[in-house]
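In the current project phase, the collection of sequences with tokenised folds has grown. One resulting record follows, to show the layout:
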Amino acid sequence: MLICMSSKNQHPEGESLFSSARDMSREPLAARMRPQTIDDFVGQDHILGEGRLLRRAIQADRLSSLIFAGPPGTGKTTLARVIANTTAANFVSVNAVLSGVKEIREAVDKAKSDRDLYDRRTILFVDEVHRWNKAQQDALLPWVENGTIILIGATTENPFFEVNSALVSRSRVFQLKALDSDDLRRIARRALSDPLRGYGRYKITLTGDALSHLIDVADGDARSLLGAIELAVETTPGRFPPPPDEEIVIDLATAEESIQRRAVLYDKEGDYHYDTISAFIKSLRGSDPDAALYWMARMIRAGEDPHFLFRRMIILASEDVGLADPQALVVVESAARAFDRVGMPEGQFHLTQAAVYLSTCPKSNSSMGYFDALAAVDREGFQDVPSHLKDANRDKEGFGHGEGYMYPHAYRDHWVAQAYLPARMRGRVFYMPGNTGYEAGIHDGVLRRREAQLEAVLETPEEVLTYSPRAGGSDEWLARAGSGRGRALEAIRDTIFACAHIRRHDRVLAADSGSGLLVWEALRKAPEGGVWAVLPKKRDCDIVSSYIESLPEIERPVVIHGELCENGIKQANGENAALEGLPPFDALIGRNLLTRSAGQAGIIRGCMGLLAPGGRLVLAETVPSLGTRFFTAADTSALPAALREKLLAAEEELYLCAENDTLTWGPAALEKAAAEAGLAGTRLTCEYYDEQRLVSPQNITAWFGSLFSAPEESSQKQAPSGYAALLRSRLDASGLETLKAWLQSAVRGKTLAWKSCVAFLTGTRGGE
């Protein structure tokens, strides 16, 4: 496979504040190829994709203080260049290695002058901001806090550890990830085809396997890739630039020479050190020998001290293996001693033996019981030693110390039940043996002795000194308050978001049947992404819109008055302005979108059309047929027995009748609809929620309203509801009058114990 690059008719990009009048050809290729606009930027879709918060903020020139964190070569400085070319603010760039408090003061003085004289903002870009010491960072803090300076910091370290916490708390932190192979391939092609900044004016042929090798070894670092391409192009002909008709061919051998063994990103004092050792320890704890060997090899290759690795493995042998395999500590300690005698490189065998043993042996963290005991000591203070455990050699005669102590070896099996904890702590459990390895063998014995010991030493409970009679009225009020509708809704919302796995940078569409239950939580979950809300009722749209007025304009959700349908979103007013430019969504969450609709498969299909490939769909749907029946929950004892039986039979038919699709469907129908729509990875679970439901006059009207008017009036004003239509066909005039009187006197305003069934449907849109 060959990739041939030739000259194209391209125009120069505009100069940025990062560039100068010097000849660009003297700059390294990586510097020349830096994107100038946000559309030229490659990668980092999780923060710069269409509809994401950061992209919107850059395009609107409404930036607040930012910190970009990520590995080298991922575009942190390039993103600052893009902002410099986009913003109308004064843009000042400094490098933390070369500047100090003096430069900060000069920048602040200039910023204050521009603000006071020209009402112009100042953005200060600080590359390698973690290099500033605390005093230097503190010098900037007041001016960031009062808005004189908008800070943009770039760092390869974890900003939460290496940057002043006060600065971090006043900034949005965006994490840039290593570029993937497709991103690097686009960057390579652009460099070879651009005639002004790259090599487009030369005839260059780069073989497919050579490009794949360069991308593989670059390991997500665009700067490393461009540096290798530059070296390969400018050294292959023997002289550069070549004659106009001479072709430059970069094959695999040339590529291997231009980019040697990849540099392992690792700093023994920095963030990558802690991240890598964390991955190593978690792989050992998780019993994955392959991952453990990989992370250990990566650290050894980067120059990590093997004694540090042995130290961490010795800790893990007790912390995470413990008595599940008492030999683990012996093996690791022996390997460490052997390493000290042998050294490198042969000592790598001892490192390997220790790591493989730890990752394959049974695990137990029962030793953590010590820290529970330590917490009890700190929390509960000094507890006197039981008298029978005290030293009898000094105070036996005067105070009776040691009296009553039973010597275990004098008893069968060398054990006897007696108290060893202070009186106030009897019954406390700190050590719980595991069920694997060596501990599995001692598990039952420990528990049996503990149970026998507790049974033998339990004393009469302490005297109860207070008593309050239970008041029926207050109990009823507490029951009502403790199981209200709000708590059930919160539980439903929490389950939706637990299933959705929303990331901070996701684009979320929240389709709610109420007044924004899902919208506000989505804003909290995806502060760097974007939120769109679809609400079917105008009143709910007005409520949400009034609340979001208090948010900064760039952070407000987009509110659409409409509902989801087979074609996506149908706006209530028929206009499409709010639907223009909708991005593909990473997550679509909804509540009761399908409950009152017979075309469930079509709506699910419409939801999928709004999702990006791999996007997640989570719907919570109340299942009427599995919930409480009204006449079952209400107290019907005052009604005649014959009438009561008719009501119960009619209601059961209402929820089971095949003609009434909006009430009779169940989880199986929902699964079928999801399958018809092509939803991938479908999962359906049902949860039941108990609440106390108040029957309001509005409920009576909604359910039975047409019973209280003449049939001809009912047909003119509204279609009869399911209850009313069915009961009219089943009851005579006398029965209807009795029912209406009972509804008004015995039910309206009463609270009913109600159980609701909610089906949670989750799935994803397949890739394309």
Notes: The CA atoms of residues 321 and 364 lie 5 Å apart. The first strand starts at residue 2 and ends at 5. Residues 367-457 form a domain with the post-AAA+ oligomerization domain-like fold (CATH 1.10.3710.10). DSSP finds 33 helices and 16 strands in the chain.
